[in-house]
Write a structure and sequence with these properties.
Blueprint: E1 3-8, E2 15-19, E3 23-26, H1 36-39, H2 44-52, E4 61-63, E5 67-70, E6 77-82, H3 86-95, H4 100-107, E7 112-117, E8 122-123, E9 129-131, E10 138-139, E11 142-148, E12 154-162, E13 164-165, H5 166-171, H6 176-180, E14 186-194, E15 205-212, E16 215-223, H7 231-238, E17 248-251, E18 269-275, E19 282-288
Parallel strand pairs: 6-17, 8-14, 9-19
Antiparallel strand pairs: 1-2, 1-5, 2-3, 3-4, 6-7, 10-13, 11-12, 11-17, 12-14, 15-16, 15-18, 18-19
């Protein structure tokens, strides 16, 4: 089961559905509104019961060409974790004038967790991500994203691109919010795989391919077994003195780092796949910000 948000051609109101190869099965009927906010307000056991017992006869079936997929979030904030893979630690140490802070946080009890995006700053499949106009060194960060309900239970997984300005963050770690949070800084999708359908989230393979001019400019892969921290640990720290009434999306960090002489350019195409989720790849172009 792949849970998606989509818009039917000629309409503007997003709907919730089950993503199939050629169709999207809408959840709910004409007189029933089912939203992601509503689903993420349910306990995990109740959510599983609701989605497992869907009445397929109640929802309309839409052809995929007649629909546009949206990022699978509604009012959820997006938060992110850093320095959770050894390669990420090493890359951030190389870029930074204060390299020791990354080595220290890698081994510390408290993980690095930061605010990434509001829903309006997130793009979905097929929509270009943005590289900042005031940065000259920018990279995608392919990540497994945890979808959490309002009780901070992991109820699903999706694919994320935590776009980052290495130039800005490397200049000073205190510039992290500017390097990470801006319009078009994050891509999510194309859908959500329920947690109970993923046998082992610690045994997934994340693959990144960047094409430029029709040729591969960079590719890499990493397994989630290389994570230095547990998902439960990351979620526990996120929830300290915090609340998310509509649920939240938590990015778990990247272990794929392009070489230091690589930077994204407008027109690049980014494809991120996570083997084991059953999801199609997340694909986005790249454009430069306006100011």
């Amino acid at each position: 089961m792949q849970l998606c948000r989509f818009v039917v051609t000629g309409e503007t109101t997003p709907r919730l559905g089950i993503l199939m190869d050629e169709t999207i099965q809408e959840i709910g009927g004409d007189n029933e509104v089912v939203s992601l906010d509503r689903l993420l307000g349910m306990p995990a056991a109740r959510l599983q019961e609701v989605l497992t017992n869907l009445d397929s006869a109640r929802g309309r079936v839409h052809q995929r060409p007649d629909c546009t997929l949206r990022a699978p979030i509604q009012q959820q904030e997006v938060w992110a974790c850093g320095v959770t893979y050894e390669r990420s630690r090493d890359a951030r140490m190389r870029e930074s004038a204060q390299a020791s802070v990354y080595d220290l946080v890698y081994d510390a009890d408290r993980p690095e967790i930061f605010f990434k995006a509001t829903p309006g700053r997130v793009v979905g499949p097929g929509v270009p991500v943005v590289i900042r106009a005031d940065s000259g060194w920018d990279v995608p960060e392919p990540e497994l994203a945890l979808v959490l309900n309002n009780a901070l239970e992991i109820v699903g997984y999706t694919i994320a691109n935590d776009v980052s300005s290495r130039a800005i963050e490397g200049e000073n770690p205190l510039y992290l919010p500017q390097a990470k949070t801006y319009l078009g800084c994050c891509a999510l999708g194309p859908a959500i795989t329920p947690a109970w359908e993923v046998a082992d989230p610690n045994a997934l393979t994340i693959r990144l391919t960047i094409t430029r001019g029709g040729e591969t400019a960079f590719s890499g892969e990493v397994g989630t077994d290389r994570l230095h921290r547990t998902f439960e640990d990351l979620v526990r720290y996120l929830g300290r003195d915090n609340a998310f009434p509509q649920g939240v999306v938590l990015l778990t960090g990247t272990g794929i780092v392009p070489p230091d002489d690589f930077t994204l350019e407008p027109g690049d195409q980014i494809q991120i796949a996570i083997d084991g989720l059953g999801l199609p790849p997340l694909e986005n172009g790249v454009r430069r910000g306006a100011s």
